[in-house]
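task queued by scheduler; priority normal; single chain, no ligands, no partner chains; default sampling; output format set to structure tokens
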Amino acid sequence: MSMSSYEYLDKINSPSDLKKLSVGELEILCGEIRDMLISTVSQNGGHLSPNLGTVELTVAMHYVYDTPNDKFIWDVGHQSYTHKLLTGRRDKLSTIRKKGGISGFPKRNESEYDAFNVGHSSTSISAAYGIARARAIKGEKGRTVAIIGDGALTGGLAYEGLNNAGRFDKNFTVILNDNKMSISRNVGSIAQYLTHIRIRPGYIKTKKIVEKILLHTPVIGNPIRKLLLNSKSKLRVSVYRNTIFEDLGFVYYGPVDGHDLNKLIHALNATKNVKEPVLLHVVTKKGKGYQYAEQDPKSFHGVPSFDIESGEPYSNSKGFSAHFGDVLCDIAKNDERICAITAAMKLGTGLNAFSRNYKERFFDVGIAEEHAVTFAAGIATEGMIPVFAVYSSFLQRAYDQIVHDAAAQSLHIVLAVDRAGIVGEDGETHQGVFDVAMLNSIPNVTIFSPCYFDELSEVMNKAIYECDNVVAVRYPRGGEPYKPSGMQNHDSYSILGDGKDALIVTYGRTYAYAAQALEILKSKNNNVTVLKLNRIRPIPNEAVDFAVDFKKVYFFEEGMETGGIGELFCYELQKRGFSGSYDLTAIKNKFVCQSTVNEALEELNLDCCGIVNKLTWN
């Protein structure tokens, strides 16, 4: 089926068009949506499994609710592609995650139907509760609906929101999309608890039957019912079999089959006018409707472009994440103190093999980065060496724990910071450009930033065996970049070239672009040298000493200018009486929008051409 020949989807320009269709027609529409999602993501890359799993739920929500008067707040937002299709963005779906196109996540400036910007987990309930409270103050009608996955319930912020919102009595619903997974398979007591609820779906009927009997029992029925409702006794639990959500103040309804439109529509209609806060428990299948995604929903959670017929990605070269996993396995084989920690990202951070080979030393804590760092700190107090593998953009969530629980106690934990620097199409919420400035502000934190696989191997060993306190090893998304010959390696820095006039200073992946720029500059008779920092904090004294005699120093940094290494390098130069000129190219007070990595680096003047132009203009 082509992307431009859908019997029903082509007629949906807003949610109001859905309401003209029968349930049978909606079921056909769901098939058309899945076809378009698979076709688009196979070309653009993106989040496939989460979106395939929520097609019927999203259709039913827009069918029952009156959006945008009723507001939807998506958790993470990586399951909102169907929502975009139904809210006037069907013709733009081919641009999703591309530069200048629509985002792969909800964006308030993109549509009136997107109530809150999001990209990280467990935020929806708190945000939705804030929206609902504000609307109540203003006297506005309409229901506020948070849609959260069971994986996001492993994040503590979700419970902070539930705890507050359970006392609210005006038009508030939480829809729990329970697909038994987050990115990696769910772990912990919450996953077990939801499984317990799923295997006894008849308890709501029991509750209603008990209430009906008591209400029709003369004289004593209603008092007994009130006693049960207000009691914390075992009798209440045995009769009502309450869920944790009801104990927090929510009216619990479910579980409901998330792929049965009739049942979904009935459940949404039954709960949409309840005054008390409602939690609707919906059970879905991640990857629903595409064989390969159903069989392996983890691999198809977030995918590059792929072949629909085979399910195979078009590019499958080894990246830094996989190499990190191999290195950590090699180290752990000879050292029983090594522990690996992930926050629901075992596959993404390359820890699959570690989890199989060293089960007793592997810990998936769920989507709980704050807990992961404090947990690692606890492990470190007992003489073990914990390595927390985490995406740069998710590490932001654990700033306080790094400061308070690890660094302030001088505990030795290793942060393996994956996806450092520009990550591309996922946009502002996922760019790994804040970790350096964040960690640079914390006392006694060491930061390494390798550019190549062999350097990653070397600095991982240094981080584990030669450093104390908190150590971060940051590396980019994807594979190895261009590698020049003739590099002179020193303990914590490297030199390329022998020019005496201008010096390029950089670190991480940007070095590869600087090396390419050096070749072009040499061909134009520019007298230039490149200095690569392998350890970026503390900055090697010898590297600053080397730079101080140059007439011009150009620093290029794939991170934030404020608080970054470029500012600190300039400060160190000035302390040594540097009399030349200094130029810093970094990200200046902005969020980096979605595009390919190469497009973003070009726009930021951090690619080869940008470096050449900077040196030839000055």
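post-processing summary
- DSSP finds 26 helices and 18 strands in the chain.
- The chain has four domains: 9-200+241-295, 202-237, 320-474, 488-617.
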